Amino acid sequence: MILASGLVVRRGGRRILDLPDLAIAPGRVTGILGANGAGKSTLLRVLSGELRPEAGRAFLDGVPVLDWPADALARRRAVLPQSGGLGFPLRVAEVVALGRLPHAGRASRAEDRAALAAAMQEADVAHLAQRFFASLSGGEQQRVQLARVLAQLHGPPPERTALFLDEPTAGLDLAQQHAVLRAAERRARAGGLVVVVLHDLALAARYCERVLLLHAGRRLAEGPPAEALSEAAVGEAYGLAVRRIATPCVPAGLFLPAEESAAPGR
After folding, report:
1. What confidence tens digit (pLDDT) does each residue in 158-196 have?
2. 3 state DSSP class of 7
3. Residue 8: beta bridge partners?
4. For residue 11, what are the contacts with CB-CB under 8 A and spacing of at least 6?
5. SS3 of 125, please?
6. Strand-pair partners of 222
7. Which helix (H) or strand (E) holds 60?
8. 243 contacts 261 by C-beta, under 8 angstroms
9. What is the per-residue pLDDT across 7-51, written as a single tens digit (0 to 9) for each?
10. DSSP tag of 132
11. 253 contacts 244 by C-beta, under 8 angstroms
12. 0.85 exceeded by the pTM?
């Protein structure tokens, strides 16, 4: 369980995050949505313990996340950042193996091998194991980094782990976008806590059971996608008049600019 209260972050004298309270439960995928600069990545970094807020605190299982010993926290939560570039000539298998560093001296070699094999299979990068990371496409690199964080969380029961994904579908083709989010969904269904920052509202509506819509660092709407993603809320969040188009594939509907949804033949 993640709880937060009184979170405030300022940058350049401007308040970029102002969130009085937040509760995120395990067992479901929680999405953080909003326009560029809305505070999504900032919130993710605060909740995961990568950024100290100016005010307020975030708690993981009742303990302030910043009070967790670094090694213990690394075994309980993993973060996939937006950009996962490396400055070293490592092969894919070596990059994924970096996720096992928090388990050094605690896991056997057999456990590490099993973790790496399972993570690379889950992220669909096993066939790239001996390729150099730098030679991969941006989408392939993103999947390798996903395998790394999955390997990091391998071992503890899923219900005792937290996975934070910051725009994990960026640079991925259509099939891989769904593959990554299905992996996140499976982890949540196994009892894990999963928080994902997304830009695609349709993907959020398909895979997130609960969403937090931010605008200028503040909560604009929160709840199940079908309730939180109203035309008014989405329009205000993105500064664009929209129309929600009902579709059986996406219960929350698809959003189009108002003038496009009203155009002849659409």
Report:
1. 788 999 999 999 888 899 899 999 999 999 999 999 999
2. strand
3. 18, 55
4. none
5. coil
6. 212
7. strand 55-60
8. yes
9. 999 998 899 999 999 999 999 999 999 999 999 999 999 999 999
10. B
11. yes
12. yes
